[in-house]
Amino acid sequence: MAKSGALDLATGIGGKIQKTEVESAVDQYEKYHSDFGGDEEARKTNYSDMVNKYYDLATSFYEFGWGESFHFAPRWKGESLRESIKRHEHFLALQLCLRRGMKVLDVGCGIGGPLREIARFSSVSITGLNNNEYQITRGTELNRLVGLDGSCSFVKADFMRMPFPDNNFDAIYAIEATCHAPDALGCYKEIFRVLKPGQCFAAYEWCMTEHYNPKNESHKKVKAEIEIGDGLPDIRSTNQCLDALKQAGFEVIWEKDLAIDSPLPWYLPLDTRHFSLSSFRLTTLGRLITRTMVKTLEFVGLAPQGSVRVSSFLEKAAEGLLEGGRKEIFTPMYFFLVRKPVLDS
Ligand SMILES: C[S@@+](CC[C@H](N)C(=O)[O-])C[C@H]1O[C@@H](n2cnc3c(N)ncnc32)[C@H](O)[C@@H]1O
């Protein structure tokens, strides 16, 4: 079970960072971003420190609001948020034709919500790769609780330098994770290297769409809000990702922004006009209650100093995501299925 109580939220803030260091970690994290004088180059050079600080600070909020899977999904009418998230995970498994006996890699696996769902859905063994130690500790515990510790495991490493031999996996997927890479080509090349020839990689990427105009100030503001609120060095366009995949050597089987056909908008859970009991903590009222609760817990010393500031930059992320979704300049579900060609001998 995901940690979803108020006390779990409070005590988890900061992850592996010492509780007395949380406030200064927030300072350091914020300084990477443009609102606080930071620039893209510094974010790219120090991506590992920036992203790890972000997930140490934010993971317990994610678990509290989203559960075990930290991603969006297209939404059908009559479907709950949880159902849509599961279906989005199954879609990847089906696109990759996962089946018993395959050795699969989940790149940037969070606390392993999708990994556990896909491992059970497709009867495969999955290795979750993640650079954040706190999330791996949580994921290992959750795997053990559902009896998947024998077939699934985690490896702590950077997806820009994976500790795996060449041609090692039968399938690879990434869900809303490779957007943290300082350079898409470098990351896709690593994935290409460890995938067996003839096998496939599928992902959901966070991207700016063709409607994004880098000269439009309100568009730039949305992009910056998403970057600071979600620990991203620089959000790439769908075309930049597609070019990087081809340059890395992949054959593109198909690609599509799944947000375009989603019957209900993917950002519905964050929409100020939307109310839902099943995803209450993500609604405007739910977020306001969480913020007040975190303030109280920080005041009485149960949550570390700096917790309210974490909750504030996550609020900023929600606002940026919502605006980006409404303006159709941003998507968290640019899907692609690509294959590593079999070389002629
Ligand atoms: C938004 S979360 C998505 C997690 C998971 N895929 C899910 O859907 O629940 C992004 C994940 O990417 C991981 N990540 C970011 N940069 C990484 C890197 N350089 N190497 C490995 N993992 C990374 C983060 O630690 C986090 O677990």
UniProtKB/TrEMBL annotation:
EC number of the protein: 2.1.1.-
Enzyme class: transferase
GO MF annotation terms: sterol 24-C-methyltransferase activity
SUPFAM superfamilies the UniProt entry points to: S-adenosyl-L-methionine-dependent methyltransferases
GO CC entries: endoplasmic reticulum
Signal peptide: none
GO biological process: methylation; sterol biosynthetic process
This protein's record includes keyword S-adenosyl-L-methionine: yes
Superkingdom field: Eukaryota
Keyword Isomerase applies: no
Keywords per UniProt: Lipid biosynthesis, Lipid metabolism, Methyltransferase, S-adenosyl-L-methionine, Steroid biosynthesis, Steroid metabolism, Sterol biosynthesis, Sterol metabolism, Transferase
Pathway(s) annotated for this protein in UniProt: Steroid biosynthesis; sterol biosynthesis
Domain SAM-dependent methyltransferase Erg6/SMT-type: 54-341
Family according to the record: Belongs to the class I-like SAM-binding methyltransferase superfamily. Erg6/SMT family.
Name listed for the protein in its UniProt record: Methyltransferase
Organism ancestry: Eukaryota, Viridiplantae, Streptophyta, Embryophyta, Tracheophyta
